[in-house]
Design goal:
mainly beta, 79 residues, OB fold (Dihydrolipoamide Acetyltransferase, E2P)
Length: 79
């Protein structure tokens, strides 16, 4: 089963690649404060049907290049 993540597109400059900002919220085990962590993930896309600011769903796949291990699934909402 592939891991899916939802995030916001922050860059569409490269050909066949989008950068997606994924934010996770977790509770600290000792202090019980909610912490937000973010990570930028590169995802493979064949045809550029998204723009900056769009919410997208990506899923893990085999390595496409040295830094790309995710691929675009669908656009969730338009900015």
């Amino acid at each position: 089963m592939a891991h899916t993540k939802i995030g916001k597109v922050v860059s569409v400059k490269n050909k066949n690649t989008i950068n997606v900002l994924v934010e996770d919220k977790l509770r600290h085990p000792t202090y019980h404060k909610v912490i937000s962590r973010s990570k930028k993930i590169k995802a493979h896309i064949n045809d550029m049907e998204v723009a900056m600011g769009d919410m997208v769903e990506i899923k893990s796949c085999r390595p496409v290049s040295k830094t790309k291990h995710f691929e675009f699934v669908r656009k969730i909402e338009v900015k």
